[in-house]
Amino acid sequence: MSESILKVENLNAWFGPVQALKNIDLEFSPQSVTALIGPSGCGKSTFVRCLNRLHEEVPGASAQGKVILQGKNIYDVSVDPVLIRRKIGMVFQKPNPFPSLSVMENVVAGLKLAGIRRKSILMEVTERSLKQAALWDEVKDKLNQPGTSLSGGQQQRLCIARALAVEPPILLMDEPTSALDPISTAKIEELVVQLKKNITVIIVTHNMQQAARISDKTAFFLLGELVEFGQTSNVFTVPREKRTEQYITGKFG
Amino acid sequence: MKRSLDKGLGEVKAQLIQMAGYLEEGVKYSTLAWKNRSREMIDKVNQIEAKVNQAHMDVDAACFKLLATQQPLASDLRFLLSVVKINTDLERMADQAVNIANNTEFYLKHPPYPDLADLIKMSEIVRELVKSAIDSFINSDASLAKKVLDDDDQVDQLKDRVFKNALESIKMKTTDVEQGLNVILIARNLERIGDHATNIAEDVIFSISGKDIRHSHTRDKGGPNEK
User: Fold this and answer.
1) Whole-model pTM above 0.95?
2) Contact at 8 Å (CB) between A24 and A65?
3) CB B76 to CB A249 under 8 A?
4) A17 touches B at CB < 8 Å
5) B1 and chain A: CB distance < 8 Å anywhere?
6) CA A234, CA B74: separation in Å to the nearest integer?
7) Domains, chain A, with CATH or none
8) How far is CA B200 from CA B124, B145, B192, B207, in A?
9) Which residues of chain B make contact with A227, given a CB cutoff of 8 A?
């Protein structure tokens, strides 16, 4: 196995007194897609939000343990969470382009926040990111139109382009296609497979077939615990754990 | 929790069990045909083959529909894949039974073969293998499936003996050449039925455990797919 790009050690998370994650250990390989599956409330979204320190933004929420990115624990007191979020991008369930910004302004919003203003760079990044997000051909003549004027599927790919613009080595996706039609879903899935040539993708999904189609490895969460983690082809055909079997065959959840 | 898939899987299983029932009858009649020198049994084998062929298509269609509409995973997926493969094996076994019936047509044109003891013993073991393979599927019984794999060796040994003795009888002129060949062909078709029974046993083990044990145990056979 190649050396992990992200390593989670004994991660625990709480919402106030309620423990949402229990002693999670998990490693992610570079240039791979990992799917996180499990019933609602199992902790998978909390888990991804711990990976870029978004979890702690929720009032009363806390986390303990280590998340080691390229050798450094992102929970060290010296680490700036904003910088972490630039390295570990995130795409959410519902497309959320900045409503008052154009397509291009949406893509380069992160760069501008980092102080990059040069137009040629911004244009170059816009084109590269939109191409990476498989959206360039559809919006190259609409770069100055509002991001919200695009279709739902296009808006989601715009959000992916926005996340990619700052060149994160890791992209977190929290049910990125749950609000999309099958065509848009297929485009995002194809995009994820393409993206892993360069980056590591960690995707939360309720769609078992989607996890089976696009991921290399699958982690099954239940009641805040990591029940099983393995090659996707094994998890969906011969799961090791009875609880995994019961969940993916729809016997509970 | 009762799933909509359960109903479909249950129906497919019931269809396959019914088909297996036809097949068991077909193998029995094909044996009785030469053993009792009965033309009536030959007709029954052909009637049964028609039922098996229809069931073959019905089971495939039902599996196809379930795969397309329910997208089963894990044990459900393994079960359905096994059903598809067992379905094909049962259909091929019915073809072998028809082959035996056809061999018997020629067999009946000649005087009885001098010593049928090994062929009768072989047919009894094959029928037992078929029954056990089907029972292992019905009851999801991996140890019974494993026993089918082990017992198939006896069939191969008996087939070799029938072949050897038939050739000997032809040489010694205690039977005519055609009758000797008829016995050899019946033995060969019986052996193929046994091979298909072992295929079913392998599929049952895969369905239960996810382990693909095909080609991992030594079997000397000419290929069960050959008609």
Assistant:
1) no
2) yes
3) yes
4) no
5) yes
6) 9
7) 6-94+169-248 (3.40.50.300)
8) 18, 8, 12, 10
9) none
